[in-house]
Every structure is written in C-alpha cells, then in structure tokens.
Write a structure and sequence with these properties.
It contains 14 helices and 24 strands. It has helices at residues 7-16, 19-27, 46-52, 64-68, 83-90, 153-168, 173-184, 236-241, 261-273, 309-343, 395-414, 419-433, 522-535, 541-552, and strands at 31-35, 41-44, 69-70, 94-102, 108-120, 124-133, 191-197, 203-212, 215-218, 224-226, 247-249, 277-284, 289-297, 353-360, 371-377, 383-390, 439-448, 454-461, 467-469, 475-477, 482-483, 497-501, 506-510, 561-568. Strands 7, 8, 9, 10, 11, 12 and 13 form a seven-stranded antiparallel beta sheet that branches. A six-stranded antiparallel beta sheet has the order 2-1-6-5-4-3. The protein is elongated and about 95 Å long. The termini are far apart.
C-alpha cells in the first residue's frame, strides 16, 4: 500500500477536507477516522488520537491497514486476512466485535469496529471507521463472501511466502515479471497481464501470458507500448496505473465508449483473450506507482470478487518492492557502466606493435571497480604502459582509479624520467592528495629497438608480475622491478627492470582478478595462467586475450579483471 504522503500533499489534503466532515467526526463519542479510496487516513477525531496514542500527523496520509491492523500476537496482519479490508474493497458495511489495533506506544488495543462507505466531498469515495475498546469474545470469523475456487488460508500464506522468496532473489526486471506471472498463473487465473510505467510516465505492456495445459504461452502480439494514462479516467486499468485503487471488472466495462486510447487497448485485450472476469491491482513501491497487474479468467471457473483483492494486493505489494529494487539496481549498473566506459581509455596506434585491452566487471558488484589499464604516447616517441588496481570494486574505487591514472599521465608526460622515478612521484601524491588506502600498479615504457625487437622498462608497485610468452610458447614471469604498494607511506627508492620483446612474442599485463580464487594459492593461479597463455601463443592477439579470459578467470571470481596485451611485429 502507499506510504505516507509528502508534506505538501498532506497539507493539500488537510486543506481540502470538508469542514463538515471534521465536525462530524468530532461529534462522534468514540474513536473515528475516514480513509480515502486508497485506504489512507484522510481525517481523524480526537477520540481516535487518544485511544491510539498517536497524534493526527502520525495518522493522516498513512495507509490505515499497514499502520494499525495487527493479529492477536501484535504481528502485521496480511490484507488477505483482514475483514475490514474486504469490506473496504466491496464498498459495504461490516463490523467486528474483537480485533486489534497497534497503538503509538507499542501496545495493542483490543477494539470493536464498524466500517461503512462515506463520501468525501471533492475527494471521491471514502470509508468511515468507528471503533471503541472491547474485551468481548467472538467466534472465529468466517468470511461471508468467499471467492469461487478460493485458496485456503494455508495456501494463501504459502503463496505469499513463495512470492516473497522468489521475487526477492532477483535483481532483473524481466526475470521478476516472469516469476510473478508463473506464481499467479494458473494458480489464480488463466491469464496474466503486466503493464509497467517506464520513464516519463510511458506505459509498456510487458507481459500477456496464458496458461495452456501445463505451459505458459506469451502473446507478444498483445505486448508493447500503450497509450498515455489520463489523470481523470475512471476506467479500472487507468485507476490502477495511477495507483488509485484495485478493481474487479469485466469486458462489459470496456464496451462503453472509450475515454482514451488505453481503454481501446484494454477492450481489445478482453476481446482477443475471451477474459470474462478480471481483477486489476496497482504495482507500486513506497516511492512510486510502477504499473498494474491484471489477472483474468476465461476458461477457469468462477469469477473474481472483491474478497480476492486483499490477497492480490499482498502479492502486488511484494512484486512492487522487487521491481523497484531491480530498477534501482539496473539504474546503478547503467550509471556505473557509463562511468567505466568513460574512464577506460582508447589505446594508441603504435606502428609495429599490436595492442589490445579487455575489462570485465565484478559479476556481483555495480559493474565498476578499481581495476584499470592505460597506454599513451610520450614526448620522446616511446609509449607508456600501465595497469593497476585500487582497493575495492565500487564507485569510490573507480573514482580513485581515475585520480591515479590522471596523475600518472601528468607526471609521465611532464617528467622525462625512468618508470621508477615516475612511480615514486605518484606514490607521494597518492599518499598526500587522495583518500586511496592502497593501490598496486605496473608502469612501463616501451620503444622499438634493433631488428624488430622492442625494449620494455618498467617498475612494479606490488602488482602481479608481467607475463612474457615467446612465439614458440615459452611463458616467463618478469619478476624484476618489484617494490611495495602505493599509499602505504614508505617512500623508499624503487627499482627499474628491462627486458627485450622479440618479434611475435606476447607481453601480458593483468590484474589479480584473473588469477586469484578463494581456497587456492596464488601460485596455482599463476601456474594456470602461464600454462594457458603458452598454449594460446599462436592465436591472433584478440583471440588470445578472449580465450585466456574464458579459460583462466576462476568460475567463482567476484573481482573485476583488466588485461593489456602487446605483440611486436
């Protein structure tokens, strides 16, 4: 159900409440409040404030069921078990001699209540709730209006538990919709339709699914973009997509002159599917209306009734939470992916030297991390090479990675010095100018030497060693130039190392996500990498890197991976 309104919305509601309504509630000699058509408290009297130990501002704009209704043990009461909720949806008068409300001080209030429809001038239909303390006993309630083919209470609770478990375990919107449909069809209906509200309030009919024998059939011809939702439309789907109310409806509702394009599409849905009875409930989170779920019965016996709506709303509320979480996660992934694409550079073209890079994000993080590579030309005609890893795989790590890379470029371009001296300058800057706790890095420079050979000089700041693979498949780790990590505060001098790369050989720079695996030693990872790299030495450079990632990266890897591969000739 909807959460509390914002301050502006609450003030507008208070200002719009008819003075006669407030006066009427004040005149009632016991607790009383009025809810609007979404079940939110629109007015309350002083008796109710006192009995509930809650000031009016803690009640107005809140969903009355979620805020107040409890079972005898003080636990939240599912809407599917709430007789008041059933009467609210049916628009009829009902009463209960013994029920439980949650007070603001954490205690339970045993009450008797009566609900009845009550029009709110200028705000549409509402419901009046009158209650008073009660200690009278009552026989267990058996609903007078049972839905045809209704589930038992145990089956309802099992369905709700299954809905929570299955929907909470995915962060993919399409998968959440697929799971939602499979939960309700054919258990509750033989048709399910999911309409989702996209950006800029555009509506997309995401799923139209029919149960045929033991299979679920998707009708893609009925899916796709939908016309806009009118703000004042009284039609059931339009109201659900505005988050106003749940409704039981049928094809007769849409046989009248349509008030909008979305009503035309809904009429076509009923005609094509043969649905004779439907229940439509909003899909919403605490932040927004996300869409609507329509369940339809064509061949299945029994029509939907208002007694079905509380259960469907419970299912929809769980689905809304899962969809909202999936959207937030996917939005975060998109932002992170865009950021990563902008942070990772294009490689320079160097005559006589083939160069390729790969980046794979951490599978369970936000698609962005601290692993990085870089290559850029230097003023003396040589080419800079770098690969590194800032601790972490989140946006802070990515931001730290960008700082390190940019400072390295500035020092390397401005200072015509050895790789070790550049790394020393960078280490001092990382320690004093950034919040980076630790980082590893290899920085080197490569330039053409005699007879097609290339000379590599480098400095290693705590990073896994480069791997050099000869044309004939001999793999050797370049262990020279080793020094401590960046950012630890010990600014001792660092060594350089030099190696010659023969034509057709392959130099591989990589991050530890390629070789580290929980439960296995680092030597095992290094041996696995050298063995596969040697076997792939004859492959073209692009194929070499792709197959190396596929073969070597551990299946249980939870870190991002960066590769930079070079081949003379």
């Amino acid at each position: 159900m909807a959460g509390p309104e914002g301050t502006d919305g609450l003030e507008a509601r208070l200002q719009g409440t008819d003075a006669a309504l407030s006066a009427a509630l004040a005149a009632i000699g016991t607790g009383a409040y009025v809810v609007d058509e979404r079940g939110r408290v629109a007015a309350v009297n002083a008796h109710a404030e006192r009995l509930l130990a809650r000031p009016a501002e803690d009640l107005l704009g809140h969903d009355a069921h979620d805020l107040l209704h409890r079972d005898r043990h003080g636990q939240s009461l599912p809407a599917s078990r709430c007789r008041m909720r059933q009467a609210f949806h049916a628009g009829r008068t009902a009463q209960e001699q013994r029920d439980y409300f949650a007070r603001g001080d954490g205690t339970l209030l045993t009450v008797s209540w009566l609900v009845t429809p009550y029009g709110i001038d200028g705000s549409g239909p509402g419901t009046l709730v009158v209650f008073h303390p009660s200690d009278e006993q009552q026989e267990p309630y058996e609903p007078s209006e049972q839905a045809a083919g209704a589930l038992t209470e145990l089956e309802r609770l099992a369905l709700l538990a299954q809905t929570t478990t299955q929907l909470a375990s995915t962060l993919d919107t399409e998968e959440a919709v697929r799971r939602l449909v499979s939960l309700v069809v054919p258990r509750l209906a033989d048709w399910a339709v999911v309409d989702l509200v996209a950006e800029r309030d555009e509506v997309w009919r995401t799923a139209v699914v029919h149960a045929e024998d033991a299979a679920l059939v998707h009708h893609e011809d009925l899916q796709g973009p939908m016309p806009p939702v009118l703000d004042e439309s009284p039609m059931p789907l339009s109201r659900a997509l505005r988050g106003v109310a749940s409704t039981v409806t049928g094809p007769e509702t849409y046989r009248r002159a349509p008030d909008s394009g979305i009503a035309v599409e809904q009429r076509r849905l009923f005609e094509v599917t043969g649905i004779r009875s439907a229940a439509i409930v909003p899909l919403r989170s605490a932040r927004a209306v996300l869409g609507a779920l329509t369940l339809g019965r064509a061949q299945r016996p029994g029509d939907f009734t208002t007694a079905d709506l509380p259960l469907l709303e419970d299912i929809a509320s769980r689905a809304g939470l899962a969809l909202d979480n999936a959207r937030l996660y996917q939005r975060q992934r998109k932002v992170a992916e865009t950021m990563q694409n902008h942070l990772l550079p294009q490689l320079p073209r160097v005559p006589g030297l083939r160069m390729i890079a790969r980046y794979q994000p951490a599978p369970h993080a936000s698609q962005v991390g601290g692993d990085w590579y870089d290559s850029f030309p230097l003023p003396d005609g040589s080419t800079a090479l770098a690969i590194g890893d800032v601790v972490g795989h989140d946006l802070e790590a990515a931001a730290g990675m960008a700082q390190v890379r940019n400072m390295l470029r500035a020092y390397a371009w401005a200072q015509q010095e050895s790789p070790s001296r550049i790394v020393e300058r960078l280490d001092a800057a990382v320690t004093h100018l950034t919040d980076i706790s630790m980082a590893t890095m290899i920085f080197g420079r490569i330039e053409e030497a005699a007879e097609g050979h290339w000379e590599l000089s480098w400095c290693n700041a705590g990073h896994p060693p480069p791997l050099l693979i000869s044309r004939d498949g001999r793999a050797t780790y370049l262990t020279g130039g080793q020094g401590i990590l960046l950012g630890v505060g010990e600014h001792s001098s660092r060594p350089d190392a030099v190696a010659l790369l023969a034509p057709g050989s392959t130099l591989l720079l990589y991050t530890d996500g390629l070789i580290e695996e929980p439960g296995h030693s680092l030597d095992e990872g290094l041996n696995r990498l050298s063995r596969h790299a040697a076997a792939l030495a004859h492959r073209p450079l692009s194929s070499f890197t792709d197959h190396l990632l596929e073969r070597v990266r551990p299946a249980g890897n939870d870190d991002d991976v960066a590769l930079l591969a070079l081949r003379p000739g």
